[in-house]
Every structure is written in structure tokens, then in C-alpha cells.
Amino acid sequence: MMDEGVAIEQARIYAVLEEQVKQYACRNRHLEAIGTVGRIIGGVLALPDVLDQTLDATLKVMGMEAGEIWLLDTATQAVCLTRQLGLEPEAFGERTRFALGEGIPGRVAQTGEVVVIPDLAADPRFLRYKVVAAGFKTFAAFPLRAKGEVIGVLDIATRRMRVFTEDDTKLVTAIGAAVGMAVINARIYEDLRLTTKRLEASLEELRRSQNQLVAAERLRAMGELAAGVAHDLNNALMGVLGQTQLMQLTIARGTFSKDHLSGCLSLQERLIADATRTIRRLREAAQP
């Protein structure tokens, strides 16, 4: 009897140890999955790549065969299928949009609660009949949260009967929160990129306008200068013309003298020098 009792106790201890080993192994896989998702989200990747790689990591750690990510369109109050991985993409693509409260994705997006369906064929809430016809049995959907709000849904499915433990639910919920923040950060980055692009375009337009204003001001100043130059040149030319006419009249009368002629020529020289300086000013002002 003692031997039988010892054997029973040893079997019990072995079963307990085996269960603990399984739990530790499961938790290690979960921790590895969280680390993997963290590295994916922390990397320099475009949002579609982040979603695909995160969804792939989730399918692997959970042992599921297909998965989807839906994002909320606040304008239409509906969730839209954004990424899909795994088996039977055509079956899962039977519906790519659900209004809030409609179907499992719409319900999870509206309530923010996890939904686990152990038998799809027996649950009337599931509206994609091609997925059921393709043999999928277990389906689970989790909210994507960011800053306290549901912004989408992550769901996974398999053709096997699969029980979701509390640790399973906590893991995928944590992944959903990480994905939610990645989506928000990507949207913020895209908004900043577009804002920067608009500001750069506005700055370029401002520069063009400024150049046009400078050109217009330069033309106005040139116009004023040209008017002044025209006045000065006219005065100089009229002076030269007057002296020339005076010399002609003096010569015609035969009354000119050397001193008088020299004076007229000196005055003409000064007037021509003034005109030359005026023209030089105009040229300098025209330099860019």
C-alpha cells in the first residue's frame, strides 16, 4: 500500500511540475512575442509593414492560421479591413467594412470588449459565411486602443478548436494596445509630414511674392530715377544746344572772339560731363 501511495503522490507531483513547465514555456513565448512586437513597432518601418509583421508575430505565438487588422473610419463610423494575413484571404475578404456594432469587428470596435468564439458555425453574430464554409472554427477579436479610445480591431482565427486562456487574452490585448499606439504615431507623423510640405510650399510662394515685390519696387525706383535722369539730360542737352546756337549766331555776325568761343566750349564740356555722370548713375542703378 505504501508503494502505491508513493506512486500516486509522485504522479501527482509530476503532473503539477509538468503543468508548471508548460505555463513557464507559454509565458516565455508570450514575453518573446511582446519583445518581438516592441522591436517591430520601434523600428523605422512604414505602417503597413508594422501591421503585417505584428500580425504575423501574433499568429505564430498564438498558433492561429489567419488574422486581420481593421481600422476605424471616424467619418463613416465603420471599421475597414486594412491588413489580412494567412489562409483563405478570399473568404475573409467577403466583407471589408462593418458599421459600428455590426458583425464581430463592428461590435468590438463599438464596445471595446474582447470577443472569443469557440464555434463559428454556431454563433449568429459572425456574418462572413465563406469563412465558416472554409472550415474555420475558433475566432477571437481584440480592440486596438490608443489614448483610451478604440481605433480598430485585431482578429485571429483557426480551423482547430482552440481555448483562449486568460494569459492568451492578456497577451493579444497588450499587442492590440501597442499596435494602436503605432497607428496613432504613424498618423501623427503623416500629419506632420503633410503640414511640413504645406509650410514649405507656402514659404516658397512667399519667397516668390517677395521677389515679385522687390522687382516691382525696383521698377518703381528705376522709373523715378529715369524720370530724374531724363530731366537732367534734357537740361544738359538744352544747354549744349543753346551754346551751339549762340556760337553759330556769333560766327554768322562775324563778332566772335577766341575768349568767347573758348567760354562756350568750356560750358558745353561741363554740360556733357554732367550728362555722362547722369548716364553712369542710371547704369549703376540698373545693375542687379
Automatic annotation (TrEMBL):
It comes from the Bacteria. This is GAF domain-containing protein. Signal peptide: none annotated. Residues 189-219 form a coiled coil. CDD domains: HisKA. One of its GO terms (molecular function) is phosphorelay sensor kinase activity. Pfam families: GAF_2 (PF13185). Keywords: Coiled coil. Residues 46-193 form the GAF domain.
